[in-house]
Write a structure and sequence with these properties.
9 strands, two-stranded antiparallel ribbon, 7-stranded antiparallel beta sheet
């Protein structure tokens, strides 16, 4: 470095700042003389011009300071040199100019956010809601199936205990039938247990969410879980069917032990009350019907036979008078035109059953028009027209039927002893 260009380190800082100001002034003045003067003349002219300028402003500037400023201009020490363009400078320029491109970027981001929001609300949200709904339905189905399995297992255990409690009829001709029925019940329970055992490994936990239905190929996908629960439910439904059959079979097994004794007791009770061969024969018929039904495992018919015997006993125990109704405002007789012969008429006398205490009682009556049996306290008994007219004349005299006892029913008998001729056919409504 030459003596001329060597920095003047001993120049005060205030002079350096002044030199920078001078250099700036010189740049503005330099264009005036740079084409008209030589280098030496230009330097002298600048020197004089700057000195005069600062002197006019009352600022005293040393010659050394002015020369330092002129030398600095030549050395470009106070001139700005743009740094080389690098990635860092690019980011710096971008940050400095952020006010220019920031609004555009912000607007673009707002548009993207709006589009995403619309897409989420229109497509993603409904789809997610649908998936969550499927997951909830699956979880409910899983819980339902697991509860059903536990319930069926408890029912199976209870039926096994009930089967073990079944006792064999003592000294009965139904022993062989009892053993066959017990084996049938056991096989049904065994089959039900097999179905429950198959269903048990298919149990799932009810913790599925909507994501399980997004990927059908996943090992834990909702679609595979639904198929597994369906298979579990199928096995459980088969188990339930077998348990229903086993329960009915066990009931029949108990009936094999109970019904024969019940039939015998009812038959003996009816025979003891009966005072006629007809009543005793009817009791024996009901007993044989029930026994035959038991041997055929027709428990419903066997129970019907016990009902018939109970009704027979009730009828045999009844004692009442059959009185003709003649109260004011009530019919004493009615007639019908048969559907098969509209030119003919069927005549009926209205009667009611009164016990020894004067109370009305109901008895089973077969309605000949419908063929149905119903209990009634008042009904019409079919008679010939001559009897119908006879009763009518009796009532017309004074509004009272003097001969109003139509018949009597005694204990131990199933039929009424009628005082008037009648076919015994009846109607219960008119």
């Amino acid at each position: 470095m030459t003596e001329k260009t060597k920095p003047q380190h001993d120049i005060p800082f205030s002079d350096v700042m002044l030199a920078m100001d001078i250099a700036d002034t010189i740049r503005h003045r330099e264009r005036i003389v740079e084409q008209e003067l030589s280098a030496e003349d230009r330097e002298k002219a600048l020197f004089d011009k700057v000195k005069a300028t600062y002197a006019s402003q009352g600022i005293e500037v040393s010659d050394a300071t002015i020369r330092e400023a002129i030398q600095a201009i030549e050395d470009e020490r106070f001139a700005y040199k743009a740094p080389k363009e690098t990635l860092f400078t690019k980011f710096a320029h971008a940050y400095i100019n952020r006010s220019k491109w920031g609004k555009g970027i912000t607007a673009l981001l707002a548009i993207v956010a709006l589009a995403w929001g619309i897409t989420w609300a229109v497509f993603t949200l409904p789809q997610q809601h649908k998936l969550n709904k499927q997951a909830n339905a699956l979880n409910h189905s899983i819980a339902e199936a697991n509860t059903s399995e536990e319930s069926l297992q408890a029912r199976l255990d209870a039926l096994v205990e009930e089967l073990n409690r079944a006792t064999e009829p003592q000294g009965s001709e139904l022993n062989d039938l009892f053993q066959r029925q017990k084996q049938t019940s056991f096989e049904l329970l065994k089959t039900a247990a097999t179905h429950i055992d198959i269903a048990r490994p298919l149990r799932l936990t009810s913790d599925f969410d909507g994501d399980a239905f997004k990927d059908a190929s996943s090992a834990n996908s909702g679609a595979l879980a639904i198929d597994q629960v369906d298979r579990q439910k199928y096995q459980l439904s088969q188990a339930k069917t077998k348990l229903d059959e086993a329960e009915q079979s066990i009931k029949q097994l108990h009936q094999l032990n109970l019904l024969p004794n019940e039939l015998i007791n009812l038959r003996n009770q009816a025979v003891d009350i009966a005072k006629t061969m007809k009543a005793q024969s009817l009791a024996q018929t009901f007993y044989q019907n029930g026994l035959a039904a038991i041997k055929g495992l027709d428990i419903k018919s066997a129970n019907n036979a016990t009902t018939d015997l109970k009704d027979l006993i009730d009828d045999l125990q009844l004692s009442y008078q059959l009185k003709i109704v003649y109260r004011h405002g009530e019919r004493t007789g009615v007639w019908r035109e048969p559907k098969i012969n509209s030119s003919a008429r069927n005549y009926y006398i209205v009667v009611e059953a009164i016990d020894k205490n004067g109370n009305k009682i109901t008895v089973p009556i077969v309605n000949e028009e419908t063929g149905k049996i119903s209990r009634a306290s008042k009904w019409g008994l079919r008679v010939e027209k001559s009897i119908y007219d006879q009763v009518a004349r009796d009532k017309q005299d004074d509004g009272i039927v003097q001969n109003h006892i139509f018949g009597n029913k005694e204990i131990g008998k199933i039929a009424v002893d009628y005082r008037f001729p009648t076919t015994g056919k009846a109607i219960t409504s008119w």
